[in-house]
Amino acid sequence: MEGPADVLEVVVMSIVSRGFRGRRRDSNQRLPPGQYLTDDFPVLSAGPTPRISLDDWEFTVVTELGQSHRWSWKELTGLSAESVTADIHCVTRWSKLDTAWRGVSIDTLLADVETAADFALIHSYGGYSTNLPLEDLLDGKAWVAYEYNGQELAPEHGGPARLLVPHLYFWKSAKWVRGIELMPQDFPGFWEQLGYHDYGDPWREQRYQGD
Length: 211
Ligand SMILES: Nc1nc2c(c(=O)[nH]1)N[C@H]1C(S)=C(S)[C@@H](COP(=O)(O)O)O[C@H]1N2
Ligand SMILES: [Mo]
What we know:
Strand content: 25-35%
Number of helices: 4
CATH architecture: Alpha-Beta Complex
CATH topology: Sulfite Oxidase, Chain A, domain 2
Radius of gyration: 21 Å
CATH superfamily: Oxidoreductase, molybdopterin-binding domain
Structural class: alpha+beta
Number of strands: 11
Low-confidence stretches: 7-22
Shape: globular
Order of helices and strands: HEEEHEEHEEEEEEH
Bound molecules: the ligand Nc1nc2c(c(=O)[nH]1)N[C@H]1C(S)=C(S)[C@@H](COP(=O)(O)O)O[C@H]1N2, molybdenum atom
Helix content: 10-25%
Mean pLDDT: 91
Largest sheet: 6 strands, mixed
């Protein structure tokens, strides 16, 4: 016969194992192939951290016809912002779940931009660049993020502002972003010219050219 202590033990065990399996199943499903989870926030920069004063900072969209649309820091941060929680996946195999950002959706920035372009080349202060199809920046998939975890974005993580495109490998999320060049044709960015995959879908493990 079960006494109260046995019943309690059974209840505790089932909560413990349910919680454990639940968490594991959840994070396993959210971990793309070949990735491991980290709670740290590693810094990956191909060069020194550029320092841009907010007075000089600007964000520019140039269309395929050469039309420019510019936002100062004040103008950018005056646009309606969104809070975004997303999992991020670095091609060096770390993934981090539930990262919390705030920034302006690319949909908002491109709302009044007339373009027939299919591709975008992202440019950063410091010279970094990365390319992606324009549709991967639209429909709530990408932001210019200027807050991380409720605080201004740290310079080493791309502050004052970085691109956030969490559905692609994190090298597409250009730090110190300064603009978007809209183009009819695809043109490889910094890592893409060095042999990384043109598109970089972590769920299809598109790490390098030919993957
Ligand atoms: N401007 C710029 N953006 C960049 C990089 C860089 O070297 N320069 N590295 C990319 C890579 S490979 C990754 S994994 C992420 C790293 O962002 P973090 O340093 O905030 O973790 O930024 C991406 N954006
Ligand atoms: Mo990366």
